[in-house]
């Protein structure tokens, strides 16, 4: 298995379970990108219209999200400050994080958001050392053409992770693990809440979808099995049961709604 760990870093500790998760609105109680768009961008109505179009399949997520982020011209450092005052961590995530760390369950964040925001906020909540144990695969931030710094008005733009219609096709990170031969393949779990998670929703053994959010709507329409959660205390209880053998993934993924 050693050769696989160079390309599949979550295998480094030979885990039985890997936990993939969205960041915004899943690990956090609010979506940082939505918050910026609603408060210093073009507002909630246009944002929701874009999300609805993505859910209906009439727009690609990449295009809708690019439009959202382009509407936010606040200097990046001020965006960080705004989010630090308004975005809160899921109240049970720290307990989940520490249980995973103690029980060799790697956490891999797959996010449509931007790495400097994700890493900066996690450091504030978990500390530098703990944050470094979490693999983060996400979009990034770059200086906008014609500008000299991300910290000037209109100075930054989102830099997408890949060329896909998602901007970050999360399935590409999960599939190499899913394709491992029997005996080497861990149980794969995913948690998400919204339109950035559509590319990942069918890729793992069990999908946790946040109650009342867009991902549930999409799963119900597309007949994708999932189990809902309100916060990470419910995810932790289920993952503990799977890890101990009390609950099979098949039984957990019965589509509880």
Automatic annotation (TrEMBL):
Q: Which InterPro entries match?
A: HAD-like_hydrolase_phosphatase, HAD-like_sf, HAD_hydro_PyrdxlP_Pase-like, HAD_sf
Q: Does the keyword Cytoplasm apply?
A: no
Q: Which UniProt keywords apply?
A: Hydrolase
Under Gene Ontology molecular function, one entry of this record is: phosphatase activity
Give the residue range of the signal peptide.
none
Gene3D superfamilies (UniProt xref)? 3.90.1470.20, HAD superfamily/HAD-like (3.40.50.1000)
Instruction: Write the protein's name.
Output: 2,3-diketo-5-methylthio-1-phosphopentane phosphatase
Species whose genome carries this gene: Coniochaeta ligniaria NRRL 30616
């Amino acid at each position: 298995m050693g050769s696989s760990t160079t390309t599949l870093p979550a295998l480094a500790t030979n885990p039985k379970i890997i936990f993939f998760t969205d960041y915004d609105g899943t690990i956090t109680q609010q979506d940082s990108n939505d918050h910026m768009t609603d408060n210093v961008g073009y507002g909630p109505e246009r944002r929701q219209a874009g999300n609805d179009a993505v859910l209906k399949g009439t727009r690609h997520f990449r295009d809708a999200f690019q439009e959202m982020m382009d509407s936010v011209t606040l200097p990046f450092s001020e965006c960080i400050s705004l989010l630090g005052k308004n975005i809160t961590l899921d109240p049970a995530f720290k307990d989940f994080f520490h249980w995973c760390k103690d029980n060799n369950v790697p956490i891999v964040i797959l996010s449509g958001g931007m790495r400097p925001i994700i890493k900066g906020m996690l450091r504030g909540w978990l500390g530098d050392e703990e944050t470094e144990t979490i693999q983060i695969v996400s979009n990034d931030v770059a200086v906008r053409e014609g500008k000299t710094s991300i910290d000037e008005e209109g100075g930054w733009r989102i830099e997408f992770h890949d060329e896909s219609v998602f901007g970050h096709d999360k399935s590409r990170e999960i599939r190499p693990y899913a394709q491992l031969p029997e005996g080497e393949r861990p149980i794969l779990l995913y948690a998400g809440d919204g339109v950035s998670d559509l590319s990942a929703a069918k890729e793992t053994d069990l999908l946790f979808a946040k109650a009342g959010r867009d991902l549930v709507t999409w799963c119900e329409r597309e007949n994708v099995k999932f189990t809902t959660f309100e916060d990470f205390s419910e995810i932790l209880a289920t993952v503990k049961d799977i890890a101990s053998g009390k609950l099979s993934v098949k039984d957990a993924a019965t589509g509880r709604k």
